[in-house]
Each structure stands twice: as C-alpha cells, then as structure tokens.
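Re-run requested by the PI after the first attempt was lost when the workstation crashed. Everything re-entered from the original request form. Ligand of interest: phenylalanine.
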Amino acid sequence: MTLEELEIERQKSLAEINGVSSAEDVEKMRVKYTGRNGLIPALIKAMKDVPKEERPAFGKAVQAWKAEVESVLSSKGSSSRVEKVNELIDATLPGQWNTPGVEHPLSRVIAESARIFSRLGFTVADGPDIENPFNNFTALNTPPHHPSQDRRDTFWLAADALLRTQTSPVQIRTMLENKPPVRVICPGRTYRRDTTDATHSANFHQIEGLYVDVKPVSLADLKSVLAYFAKEILGSEAGVRFRPHFFPFTEPSVEVDFACHVCKGKGCNVCKQSGWIEIAGAGMVDPRVFKHVGWNPDEVSGYAFGFGVERIAMIKYGIPDIRWLYENDIRFLNQLG
Ligand code: PHE
C-alpha cells in the first residue's frame, strides 16, 4: 500500500466510524479497525513489505491514523453510553432525597450527661417506669400522708403500683442490689399529674445520681460534681447556685439553679425575673433511707441528686417552650440536629 492509498483508507474509515452511533456499532468499528485482527494492526504487521525508504513516513502515518480512530471511537463510546442511560432513566426528574434522622435533643442531653458523669466514675443504672410505693415513697422516707402521694399528684395504677414520680426509686433499687461503694446515674421517664404549660409536662425526664461510699462523702463533693457537670454540659461560663431546701430523702438538701440562658442572669419572663432556673434537687442521703435498704448509716455516707433533662435541653438549645420537645415537628428537630 502506498501513502496515497493509506490516506484514502484513513478517510474512508473515519467516514464510516462517524456514521455509527449505537454502542454495538461502535464496538464493531473497534473490532474492524483497531481490534487484534483489525485493519490497522494488520498494516503494522505488513510494514516489512514496505520499501525501506518509505517505511518511516508510512509508519508515522499508520500510527497517526490509529490514534485518530481510537480517539473518535472512545468519544463515540462515551456518548453512546450516555444515550443508553438516557433511555433507561429520565435525568430531568427530581432526585430521591435521603434524609437521615437526627438525634432528639432529650436523647442528646441524656447521652452527653452519661459521658460527662462517666468521666467521674459513674455508671448508668436503670429502673422501670411502673414502681411500687416502697421504692417510690416509703424507702425514700416519704410517708403515706406526704402530699406527693396524693391521688392528685401521683398516677396510681393500683394500690401497689404507680407511675414513678421521680427517678429516685432507682437509688433504692441500686442500694438493694449492690454493696457500697455505688456511683450511678439513672436517666429515665417520670410522671406527675401536672397540667401542661410552657415549663411543665405530666411526663418528663430526670437523671438521678447517687454516690455512696464507706469513706466520708461531703456536701462539698456534691457541689463540685454538679458545678463541673454544669460547666461541661452548658459551657465554661455556666452559672450555678445552691439554695437550702427540703427533700424527705436527703439531709441537708439543696436546690440547684443554673443561670438563665435567655437573660444571662439579668431577669426575664423565662426565669420569672429571678435570673435563675431551677434544675436539680440534691442533698446528702438521709440516714433513714440507708436503714430502709439495710445499710448502716454509721458506716456509709453519700449524696444524691436529680435533675430535669427538659430544663437542661431548654437552656442548652434556647427552647422557650417544653411542649416543643414532644411535638416531634421535624422542622424543629432538624434545626437542632
Ligand atoms: N427526686 C427529687 C425531685 O424529683 C429530686 C432529688 C433527687 C432531690 C435526689 C434530692 C436527691 O424533685
């Protein structure tokens, strides 16, 4: 073959290749021209028959032809693939959204609290929502005439069954089932006959804490643990305040306030102008409670606390109404996620 004949073959091949469009025909062209037994490899093999002085020019022309055919075939190949995809799907339709869920703010506060207290050596304990009156009241030094036992305050299911009004019965369960020292927190649901408004709900969550040891435990230990917790969960500027209070199962008792998130302590509607929001009840475990679980109050001492998960979530995320936490409005939850 002469160089002129080669040029004619080249033009013919390009015309032929440009005329095809389907993936199958493109493949046929590849086999015909550049495949193992194709025209171009055959020409390369036959180079030895070309007169010596023409060989370099001829070789160059064949290589250029081969490169040209390959590039046209590959661009044809990709556009025929696009055509094939377009036959199968309509790329102009909107895509399918994949919306992974977000963790509920209450779950997040519980998980984060468990992480913080675990750094202080606390493990997570659990107890049932339906309790007996001994665990919820009697062992917690709360006698039958105490107002919290009133049918207007507690959901009684039967004479010996109620929806726990606090997570404190898990203190009793923990002490009945273990030996000192114990160091647990217990997140869980609690129930009270309460009318629902912006800051109250008949069903809410608490995290109980209990530390009892055979070595002396003091109110100062309790204060430092709760102050540490406040700073870890709300940030290093979180203000904490302790007020004397009364609980039947702790002596002395305190109420723990965190500085109001809205006004930063200046006073506003959310904190009822006080600058503080009540978060937790706490105190040193009352000796009578130890007696109820068969522990000797002369040998052990400890503290307990219980705080509201909703209150912390509201402060942490700036939520003005507790009801938003239960409505499960996806727009609200996604904003916090
Ligand atoms: N159980 C108390 C409440 O619900 C809080 C509390 C827990 C107080 C532990 C003292 C010790 O109000």
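Saved to the shared folder this time. The CA atoms of residues 267 and 273 lie 4 Å apart.
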